[in-house]
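Example record

One chain of 510 residues, shown exactly as stored in the release files.
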Amino acid sequence: MSLPRRLLVGAALVTLSVALGLVVAVSLFLTSSRTVVLLGHDTVVRPTLARDAVIQTGPILPDLRIRDVGPVGATLALGKTEVGSIEELVDRYAYIAGDPTAQVDKVRAVLIDMAVAAAIRGLGVGLLPVAVFLLLGRHRRGELFRGLRTRQGLLALVLILVLPVLVWQPWESPEETQEGQGTWVTLEDFVGPEAVLPREVRDIEIRTSAFTTQSRRLVLSALGTYSTSKDFYSDAAAEAADLDLREPEPGETVALLVSDRHDNIGMDRVARAVGEAAGASVVLDAGDDTSTGQPWEAFSLDSLAGAFEDWDRFGVAGNHDHGPFVSGYLADLGWTMLDSEVVEAPWGGSLLGVDDPRSSGLGSWRDETGLSFAEVAERLADTACSAMEDGKRVSTVLVHDANLGREALSRGCVDLVVGGHTHVQAGPDAVEGEDGSVGYRWTNGTTGGAAYAIALGSKPRRNADVSLVTYADGRPTGLQWVRLRTDGTWRVGDWAPIEPVAADDLTPRP
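Predicted structure tokens for this chain:
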């Protein structure tokens, strides 16, 4: 074969491979789906070329459409969830819509992952003609092309061409459905002139029908909740930048302590704003990020992870984070979930923590299960004291309930124990150990402003707290609480210096 002919054949083969790969990749992408937890639902995500995001809410509530979201669109079919009433479900949507960044990022990441998977498969199919061409060799390729001139060859070629049509079946027409009969109108037209809509939601479209027209009351209620929630937390985050907080000195590291969020994603950007104002770069999560620990609450964990994505992140699960879901989910999102082992901390010291043993399915010590609160406290103290014997005193124990670190403090093996659980701020309390050493205990209030295990709302149900822990030379040196009250005003506690003392630091008595 002459060189020009080889080049021509090669170019044709590459063109065929690229075209086949693109067709297969695009087809696979547009026909693929992925089930994720979104908006508190098991949600099926399907990509489209319409450039719109369509949220199919199910048989009760109207569907929503957001136009021109990007180069590709998506259909989000909401499935199972846990909810007490339709009104509660609508309110949940409104709260999440007040800060949807984490949910939008999750959909975008899923679509990118689906596109990459489709591209890899398309590449594999696209390389098939090249592989077949090389495997056949020149002699067999000649026989194959000569065979196409025969009756059997022509029949085989026709079957190959007909096969995609048989798979596609374009003659099948979909049955007429309620979805097809609905029409899209803007939210502003749907609710009518009696409601003043925020600018950012006016162009959202809603699918109308005889039933969804009766849902106007629910939509108006959700819009009111959305506006109240968005304004409250946005104003709080903006005001946090001007709070009178102690600024870290050179060589100091500040950690932000949060606890008992109980799904209140509105407070995440507020907590982040407080941390930034105080120069924090580390977040310590003392647990109870959810109310039940179930997968439908993944929206809360997505929000928390997104708010502190570029910080050093450590956490434990609380007693309401039932089962292994919360710890596993945050670990997959890049958090260091403490599991009864001493780890290096960003401030140069060491950090120890464990999930609350009162959580259903939690409280294990490595491979053991069913340990009581007192037994876990004892094991935690054993680990801390063992580390101190090895010359590495634990600077901080992170637990959900500070009482879990009481034994470690009494033995004089840790500098500081921090937790939450009670929803009431307390400390710093100095605890003198058996050997004369001194450690401290600190309890953060509820960051979500939770009443009992419920915090999701248009504003905190009670005062919402975060704490700031200052470290220098690998050890804690001070603590400060910051509180957002239910009326939107702020209170800032005085920075309380602490001076933990290890037994080795004690002046020998005469």
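Notes: The first helix runs from residue 3 to 31.
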